[in-house]
Amino acid sequence: MRIKSSLALFIVFFAITKGNAQAKNYSVHTVAFYNFENLFDTINDPKTIDEEWLSSGAQNWTSKKYRQKLENLSRVLSEIGVGPIEEKKNPKPPTFIGGAEIENRGVLEDLIKQPKLASSDYGIVHYDSPDKRGIDVALLYQKKHFKVTSSINIPLIIYKKQMDNSVKKKVETDDASDDKSEVELNSERVYTRDQLLVTGFLDGEEINIIVNHWPSRSGGEKKSSPFREAAGALNRKIMDSLIKINPNAKIITMGDLNDGSYNRSVKIAIGAKLKKTELQVPRDIYNPFEQMAKDGNASLFYRDAGDIFDQIMVSQQFTLPDYSSFRYWKAGIYNKSFMIQTTGQYKGYPLRHSINEVGFSDHFPVYIYLIKQSK
To answer: Are 289 and 308 in contact, with CB atoms under 8 Å apart?
Structure first.
């Protein structure tokens, strides 16, 4: 009789506990990163190498094509992370969008005015970088949720001498990418993108976001690796500086790293961890995209092999087990069918721009969810 009574009491307790658990509400924010792949306007900038993206240039880049590019990007951005997510719901587009391959602030202003994005009222943090083609990184954020308190663009100072001497004589065309500005053979410095640091308050909680676009693999993956290792070291230095100021700092670093999660720039220079359980101290960083890569997922195809160069990593404070403040929840790659090439040699690849078609990008966007239990 006692056993039956105890069992009945347990069942009632379990039902109440389960009901309370199901009744929990969460605030959800999506953090996304997208390489926009050559988001250029149609106006010649005499300070940069942008002639390819003019109506008279190799891409025959017209106002009509530019408008279509903006529409395509806005469609993708407006859909990332939206909808039911298990027991949690997220009705809004990303609160944060890190972007790369952006010509100037003007193209971002045109982008956020697109009908699919206008109602989200995005703010812009953007600086011109020393990249020879004029492509920059930037952060878009929903102004009703995030208040910027500071921002800075931190230069990556690297030199040709960091690359093998043979690269100075001949850039290997079989490993070259669209990112053509990295190896400047007539200058000792390699001009590349700055790393953008933005600090502010997300619904009252301070967070720090770093947006990256690391040096490309032009000249060969191994020979150009020191450039990306230097980028990883700079990223690590920025994060350590934030941790020194506030040991409980919440940090998100994201971008197109032009390396996988397994490369030295990420595993050694940053010290990114595969599992949340490996994080022991505040400076430790968790990379959810390492396991995704191990599982065979891809955000792009490099030399006919899928990989994840686009990554979002979070500091230890985002991985604590309670949800009393914003924590990392899960990650994903947004690769809907309309964004994928369906025919030809590149079937299954991201649907990128060509002379005959204005696509989306040669990368798929990546994203994470931040959640917080509502009181």
So the answer is: yes
Decide: helix, strand or coil at residue 49.
coil
Question: 3-state class of 166 per DSSP?
Answer: helix
Q: Are 330 and 312 in contact (CB under 8 A)?
A: no
Q: In this predicted structure, what is the pLDDT of residue 175?
A: 46
Is residue 8 helix, strand or coil?
helix
Distance, CA of 33 to CA of 30 (rounded, Å): 10
First to last CA, the chain: 40
What phi and psi values does residue 57 have, to the nearest 5 degrees?
-90, 180
Are 163 and 185 within 8 A, CB to CB? no
Distances, alpha carbon 59 to alpha carbons 56, 62, 291, in Å: 8, 9, 37
Per-residue pLDDT reduced to its tens digit, 25-82: 889 999 999 999 999 999 999 999 999 999 999 999 999 999 999 999 999 999 999 9
Other C-beta atoms closer than 10 Å to the C-beta of 333 total 17
